[in-house]
Amino acid sequence: MKKGHNTKENEILDYIQRYHAMTTSEAMQLTGVSESTIRRLFIKLQQKGYVERVFGGVKEIPQVETYSYQDTVIKNVEQKKEIGAVAASMVNDHDFFYLDCGTTTRQMAKALAVRMREGSLRGILAVTNSIINLEILGPYCDIIIAGGKYSCERKDVSGNISETFLQQFHFDKCFLGTDGFRFGHGFVSTSTTVSLLASAASKLSEESYVLMDSSKIGKNAVGIHCNMSNIKGIITDSEIDAENLQRFSELRMKIIVKKGR
Question: Cβ contacts of residue 182 below 8 Å, gap of 6+?
């Protein structure tokens, strides 16, 4: 059962993931509870960002399909390589960590593979929702793929099944991607289900880091990744400007860049 959710909530979420919507009467029949209880459950799930309330029930939150892995992978490649190398250097022997999807975490996976080939990193275990990361790291270390609904555009899995799957783990570290960042709002994503999965992973980790190239600062998207309080640091490229560095400093957010910045 998903941490923070009771059995009735999980039953509702599983139904919505399958059928994309649910009426109050359907929820009552499925769970065997009263109409007033169902309304309270719907309100709670809406507040958590899992559903959207409509007349007579709830529906799945629509995804904004503006993200394409193939389009994104060719953007800001050198900055992503820089970030990936810094993030990979923060992984220690025998670490157990979560690695999020995305084209920046892909560069981290590639840097980790280099370290393992060279023999400077041993015994790690990774959990990921990214098919790309699985293919990169699979030949070099033990890796677990989170179950869930597959997105062809994003090359990843997410959803209620993925979040439930993660609850059995406690990670040493968590490395997350993001589609944007806005001061006053936090980290955002073009996929609500990926946002919720990233947020769940950060709460299950001793240390959580976000990999974000500096061009994403100020960009908006649907969904909130996680609150600033859940993140130990942001790993970014050396092109981040002084003004943004100052703003992060005022928020007491640690910015991690390549040594020599």
Answer: 188, 218, 219, 220
Class of domain 69-256: alpha beta
Q: What is the rounded CA–CA span in Å between residue 172 and residue 208?
A: 9
DSSP 222: S
Which of left, alpha, beta for 172 (phi over 0: left; psi -120 to 50: alpha)? alpha
Nearest one of 158, 152, 194 to 176, comparing CA atoms: 194
CA distance 222 to 137: 30
Residues 6+ apart with CB under 8 A from 59: 16, 20, 21, 22, 51, 52
Domain residue extents for the chain: 7-60, 69-256
Residues 6+ apart with CB under 8 A from 16: 22, 50, 51, 58, 59, 60
In tens, the pLDDT along 198-208 reads 989 999 999 99
Over the stretch 123-152, which tens digit does the pLDDT of each residue have?
A: 999 999 999 999 999 999 999 999 888 988
pTM listed for this prediction: 0.74
The domain 7-60 is placed in CATH, from the list 1.10.472.10, 1.10.10.10, 3.10.20.310, 1.10.3720.10, at: 1.10.10.10
